[in-house]
Amino acid sequence: MAEHLASIFGTEKDRVNCPFYFKIGACRHGDRCSRLHTKPSISPTILLSNMYQRPDSITPGVDAQGNPIDPRKIQEHFEDFYEDLFEELNKYGEIESLNICDNLADHMVGNVYVQFREEEQAANALKNLTGRFYAGRPIIVDFSPVTDFREATCRQYEENVCNRGGYCNFMHLKKISRELRRQLFGRYRRRHSRSRSRSPYRHRSYEDRSHRSHSRKHDERDHYYESRSRRNRSTSPDHKRGRRRSPGGRRDQSPVRDGSEERRARIEQWNREKEQAELDNRANADSNYKNESNWNGSAPNQDLYYNQQ
After folding, report:
1. Are 198 and 130 in contact (CB under 8 A)?
2. Interval 101-135: pLDDT, tens
């Protein structure tokens, strides 16, 4: 039972906890929601509710006096607010992401989500921002359960096809320019690159590194030649021919039968070798006979010898 409740926690099947609050950190029903809004006691993400005020908050594209506003000025106003807020929050720790909603619904308008690298940094920011004011308005800050903004972001808004407009229940995150993002978040990349350059291997002397690389090259070359010789030895015909043998010295595989011409030539060769062997034996017998006669001092009668033979 406990495993089942844990598997459906924060989903549509969960009849106790609100899935929208778990996924987005805000619910359109607010305190009147029939499901629980369980606020986390600790989280790497904090929520600054309704902090960003659009210049055209009353009517999109029109200021309070009813005059049209240039979209470039609206973007410039937003980037000034983004940079000011980033510099202030950067005092409490490294910022992983800073997202500002462009929605128009009351429960999401102007919401700012700040995700720090560590939970302790988010707790420090929450402690220092509580009770402070920004542009004459109090800052409402709290921990947020949102950790994956891909699940909370409206994908149709990113493709410019969301038909719900600013009243969509998913986040419509307002984007900043590439230059500003490189300026703000580029400091973390440079900091990480410096920390990686301080590794123990980079502080070794040049002689140690050259000796290690030279020995590594020799080991790799020896291993290459050894594996190559082993591969050639295992694939050579002689190695394959003598690899499988029975205890009696015979091969397991059946011999290959020769053709008729090869068998005929082999028989003729055997006959020639047999005749040559008989001639050699006869010559050896004659030489032995002569040696015996020389040792005895007299030559026996050869006719009698051949007759006896």
Report:
1. no
2. 988 888 899 999 999 999 999 999 999 999 999 98
Are the C-beta atoms of residues 144 and 45 closer than 8 Å to each other?
A: yes
Q: Is the pTM of this model over 0.70?
A: no
Positions of the chain with pLDDT lower than 50, given as ranges: 4-5, 199-211, 214, 239-240, 242-249, 252, 295, 298-309
Angstrom distance (rounded) from CA 57 to CA 65: 12
- What is the sign of the dihedral through the CA atoms of 281, 286, 289 and 294? negative
Q: Cα–Cα distance between 27 and 32 in angstroms, integer?
A: 10
Phi-psi bin for 49: left (phi > 0), alpha (psi -120 to 50), beta?
Answer: beta
Packed helices 71-89 and 178-197: angle between N→C axes, nearest 10 degrees: 30
What's the confidence (pLDDT) of residue 124? 96
Q: What is the structure's pLDDT at 177? A: 93
Distance CA 136, CA 133 (A): 6
State the Cα torsion 249-250-251-252 to the nearest 10°. Answer: -110
245 forms beta bridges with: 251
Which residues touch 106 (CB under 8 Å, ≥6 apart)? 28
| C-alpha to C-alpha distance for 282 and 241, rounded to whole angstroms | 40
